[in-house]
Amino acid sequence: MTQVINEEQLDYCDVLIKPKRSTLNSRKEPNVYRKYTFKWSNRTIEGNGLTVANMATTGTFEMAKVFQYNKMFCCLQKHYSFDSLYEFFTENNLSAKTLDGHICGNDYVFLSTGINTEDVNKTKRVLDTGLCKNLCIDIANGYIPKLLEAVSLFRKEYPDIIIMVGNVVTGDMVQDLILAGADLVKCGIGPGANCTTRKQTGVGRPQLSTVLDCAEAAHAVGGYICADGGITCYGDIAKAYGAGADFVMVGSLVAGTDEAEGDIIEKVYRTNEYDCYIETEERVVDGFTLIDEISVPDKPKYETKKFKLAYGMSSKYAQDKHWNGMANYRTSEGIVTLKEYVGPVQNIIDDYLGSLRSTMTYINCTKLKDFPKVTTFYKVRRILNNDGKGIL
Question: What stretch of H or E contains 279?
Answer without folding.
Answer: strand 265-285
